[in-house]
Amino acid sequence: MSQPTTATTTEDRSAYRAVTLFPLLVLLAGVIGYAFAGPVSGGAGLITPLLGVIMFGMGLTLTLRSRSYSSPPSAKLPSSRLMTSPGPVPPRRPRRRRPPR
Q: How many angstroms separate the CA atoms of 69 and 62, rounded?
């Protein structure tokens, strides 16, 4: 059995640190957003562009190899149908009755 290399050990430590710290950062951001809702809500217009930057960065990490060994197309069909289906239908508002003349 071979010993782990220094690079592998360092990568494992970095991955563990990222997996541990990210949820803590998300919780901290939630607490800050809740505690300082007024000042934080001023940045609401930045949510869509910043989310686009994050998703673009995630897309840059994909490789052809990571896509070629994914699940077969038949397994993807149900999930893609669920993603594109409409969400819950909002309840209908009751009609206003006109007063009698």
A: 12
